[in-house]
Write a structure and sequence with these properties.
With 395 residues, the chain is α+β, with helices and mostly antiparallel strands. Helix content is 39%, strand content 21%. It has two domains: 205 residues, Ribosomal Protein S5, domain 2 (2-Layer Sandwich), CATH 3.30.230; 172 residues, GHMP kinase, C-terminal domain (Alpha-Beta Plaits, 2-Layer Sandwich), CATH 3.30.70. Strands 5-4-6-3-1-13 form a six-stranded mixed sheet, sandwiched between helices. A four-stranded antiparallel sheet has the order 10-11-9-12. The chain has a three-stranded antiparallel sheet with strand order 2-7-8, sandwiched between helices. It starts with a helix and ends in an 8-residue tail after the last strand. Keywords: ATP-binding, Carbohydrate metabolism, Cytoplasm, Galactose metabolism, Kinase, Magnesium, Metal-binding, Nucleotide-binding, Transferase.
Length: 395
């Protein structure tokens, strides 16, 4: 859909024009997977795919929301006097949760709005469409109602929506990357302290390619919460023997000394991934700073192997597409990105090799899995924002 399509759809739905428009990106995580809720480092960046929100304030307390991605759901309506989660509200529980949590935090939302959402993030692809709609809604509410809300507070409220309203026990990485992203940079974020640093991404003749397995993943229904529980179990055991607040406090060497206390081999493997992935992430950021893309690529490969063998969150689709990528000429590294259980992987590929890379990986994947993958060239973009008239360009 282009700008005129969306403006026309808004008028058709609500018999008016929107006052303002907003955008929040999706995100990829270059490395540092399942470390965020373990108190470790992550290394995400915002991408130029994302969620658009066109909005117009109302004179009553009613919110009407429509997604061009789910037209069969129609307009979903709720008001400020009933902000409870309702299963039948489906996707709209994400923006509804932002309304509720902002109001609960003392920010005066004193009216409703008509809103049209449109996202060009493939749904269920693991590029953080949920955090994107949360942060698009947060910025929209901030601007429409003149709220004084710090961006980091908005990020934390988005996480609270995910955890307490939707029921997914995720970390803060997604909302942080979507809310705080900057063009052509990645963010090294310490999820324990929320200290962060921007790292310019200079790929020197290479590009990031997203490889979508086209296997949808449903986080709330996946084994995500199970993995977190296993890591919490490991932490509780290790805290009897070491003064640590999170698995991210441990170096690999310290973990190896303590690992005999983890007698359950599954729990030990989960904790090992969290600790080693954290160390890989710090090394990868340092490698990027030195422009050592070869080392960065090797660390990406090691990350996927750990996610496959120790954390067991990849599955046949992600493994097939990543292993096919590893075999191709001009590939520096490849790994799954996001929570796993389907969704997307990323690869750093020499620009001139990308057409052949897509052709070969696509063919191998279809032969192994039986259906096609999708591929996207990625540009690293800004975080959630209001759009000026000239910025409203759909990508």
């Amino acid at each position: 859909m282009d700008k005129q399509d969306l403006l026309g759809l808004f008028k058709e739905l609500y018999n008016s024009r929107p006052d303002r428009s907003f955008f929040a990106p999706g995100r990829i995580n270059l490395i540092g997977e399942h470390t965020d809720y373990n108190g470790g480092y992550v290394f995400p960046c915002a991408i130029t795919f994302g969620t658009y929100a066109l909005a117009r304030k109302r004179n009553d307390r009613v919110f009407r929301m429509y997604s061009a991605n789910f037209p069969e759901r129609g307009i979903i309506t709720f008001d400020l006097d009933d902000l409870a989660y309702k299963k039948e509200h489906d996707w709209a529980n994400y923006p509804k949760g932002m309304v509720k949590m902002l109001a609960d935090a003392g920010h005066p939302i004193d009216g409703g709005a008509d809103v049209l959402f449109y996202g060009n993030i493939p749904n269920g692809a693991g590029l953080s469409s949920s955090a994107s709609i949360e942060m698009a809604t947060g910025v929209m509410l901030e601007k429409l109602f003149g709220l004084s809300v710090d961006r980091l507070e908005l990020v934390k409220i988005g996480k609270k929506v995910e955890n307490e309203f939707i029921g997914v026990n995720s970390g803060i990485m997604d909302q942080f990357a979507v809310g705080m992203g900057k063009k052509n940079t990645a963010i090294l974020l310490d999820c324990n302290t929320l200290k962060y640093e921007y790292y310019p991404i200079r790929l020197d003749g290479c590009r990031i390619v997203i490889m979508n397995t086209n296997k949808r993943r449903e986080l709330a229904g996946s084994k995500y919460n199970e993995r977190r529980k296993e890591c919490d179990t490991a932490l509780q055991i290790l805290q009897r023997h070491a003064d640590i607040q999170s698995l991210g406090d441990l170096t690999p060497e310290q973990f190896e000394d303590l690992s005999p206390h983890l007698t359950d081999p599954v729990v030990r493997r989960r904790a090992k991934h969290a600790v080693y992935e954290n160390a890989r992430t710090i090394r990868a950021a340092e490698a990027l700073k030195r422009n050592d893309l070869q080392l960065f690529g090797r660390l990406m490969n090691e990350s996927h192997i750990s996610l496959r063998d120790d954390y067991e969150v990849t599955g046949p689709e992600l493994d097939a597409i990543v292993e096919a990528a590893w075999e191709q000429e001009g590939v520096l590294g490849a790994r799954m990105t996001g929570a796993g259980f389907g969704g997307c992987a990323i690869a750093i590929v020499e620009t001139e090799q990308i057409p052949r890379f897509i052709e070969n990986v696509g063919r191998i994947y279809k032969e192994k899995i039986g259906y096609e993958a999708a591929f996207y060239h990625v540009t690293i973009g800004d975080g959630a924002k209001e759009l000026a008239a000239g910025e409203f360009d759909l990508v």
